[in-house]
Amino acid sequence: MTEGPQQQQQQQQQEAAVALVSAGTYDGALLGVEVCKMELDGEEGYELKQVFGFASHLGAVKVCCAGKGGLLATGGTDEAIRLYDTLKRQAKGSLDVHENSVTALAATPSGHCILSGAGDGKISLTRLSDCRVLKSFRAHSKGGVETIAVHPSGRLALSAGAGELRMWDLTRGTCAAVSKFTEPIRDVKWVTLGDGKEGYAIMMNRKVQVLSVSDQPGGEGSLPKPYESDALLSSMCFVDGCLVVGKADGSLAVLRIAANGDLMVESEVAPHRPMTMRLTSPTAVGLKP
């Protein structure tokens, strides 16, 4: 059976799609935008096309996270976590495990669980197959949970809130380490240093610092060289051995991580107008190989 022109066109559009970007809004909406390759006048470019939209939350969408198998989770000021299947473009259900605004989300590498943090400082580990809360603990007493990062092994996690960074053993549900900082931590990511060793990057208002597990934040003289920005930092992601940092003035900085953790500017990009950006890795937004 031969395909009709319309079917062929849909197949070509699907093959041209290279990423799916999801965004939440202040009025509770969730939008999915497909990034497609296109050619115009012999030059390759990209086109953005909205492919789904949901009335996700009764309040503002505070956070989104992507997981294995097309999983997408959102958290909002209505204290709910909504789950979606981005491959089928449909809602899967919701989790009601918090009594405060959901401020941080991270899926485990297996896609079986969601780690969520709230404005009251509570963190919960929930299994998605039966919506059962496996672990629940008060992570940050002063202020809420700002961000969560799950280790690629799925056994450890980092959480930040009110100038405090905690490392969690997810197999036991216990805190393995606590580090204090003089500035509030806005984001944290697990990274690989130039020599292949593991570490983590913390983003503050105007500074990014890479640390190994053995580094002590109090010993300023022995710490790797940070990246310092004139503009406020809004988000970051780790991809292909580099940190990509988004700024509130609309610019981007690509940072190379040296073997000792020093950060070096590899390139900078300045968009046309100021904006607040939320960056995530290509795999998290559905980038196809």
From TrEMBL:
It comes from the Eukaryota. PROSITE patterns: WD_REPEATS_2 (PS50082). GO terms for molecular function: kinase activity. InterPro entries: PAK1-Kinase_Regulator, WD40/YVTN_repeat-like_dom_sf, WD40_repeat_dom_sf, WD40_rpt. Keywords: Kinase, Transferase, WD repeat. It holds the Pfam family WD40. WD repeats lie at residues 95-136. The keyword Kinase applies. The keyword Metal-binding does not apply. This is p21-activated protein kinase-interacting protein 1-like protein. The gene is PAK1IP1.
